[in-house]
Amino acid sequence: MSWQILILISVLADSLGSIFQKIAMKKHHVSEELSMILFQSSGFAIFFCYCLIFHKFNWSAEFALLNTKLVLHYLFSGLLYCVSSFTIFLALKRIDVGIYRILFSSRALVSVLLATFFLNESLNGWQLFGGILLIISILNLFKSKLKKLKHLNSGYFFALLAALCFGIAVVNDKTIIAVNNIYFYLIFGWSLPAIFISILRFPKVRKDLQDSHINSQYLLDLGKFIIFYVISSSTFYEALIRSNNTSIISAINQSSIIFTIIFAFFILKERQELMTKFISLLFTISGLLLLTLPIR
User: Fold this and answer.
1) Model confidence over 103-128: pLDDT tens digits?
2) How do the residues of the chain divide into helix, strand and coil, expressed in percent and rounded to 5?
């Protein structure tokens, strides 16, 4: 399968994953902690089986490459993705999925800025301009809310915190995948957040398990967005492996925001503040393209 088909599948699956995640959080009274644990654990199980069946790497060779410093990088990424995943669930319970996706796109700006300072990657004027466009898109979403801060939905801040942690984690990941096979790393990328949230929020998780509202319909809705996210993740990395142009792949991947807003309009009937979303979407896509494409 060509990388073009793979990245298209990834984009559509990512968009649908966000839609079904929103549906699951909106319809069911299951805590964010428990939802996240089920999500991460199920994703880990699917990815683990996928890697075993298709022999994506040599286990003993990958473990032999680990050292104390690399393990600390694994733990740091695991903690960051834990916070990011948890705050995504918190955000989706409080704001429209379209607004969440626009705010969450700021993770690209975080990654580019940190890579410039810590990985000595170059930052040109076009990328700076792209970052400014992303900031404008976020301010546009906040514009109507700033006049009445006491009514500002906390979901906005959770989405931005998720983007911050995710952006930092992506930069940290570069140290890991420079040594280990990316699929070997992704197994831990799916499992560690579930382990961390289980430890950090153990009393709440234990109580939620006792008072759980989990039923077959919830598991069905949960299963939908887990499958879409796993498909999106695996096809994205397969496209990266088969293509020689990482920047183009990353740029195309940003179009998932457009599909998410379109799907949300028809499936979730999210039709509030359409003009505000549209303006922010234009700034976001433009900013992301300038950040990810190799323009000089």
Assistant:
1) 999 998 898 888 888 878 778 888 88
2) 80, 0, 20
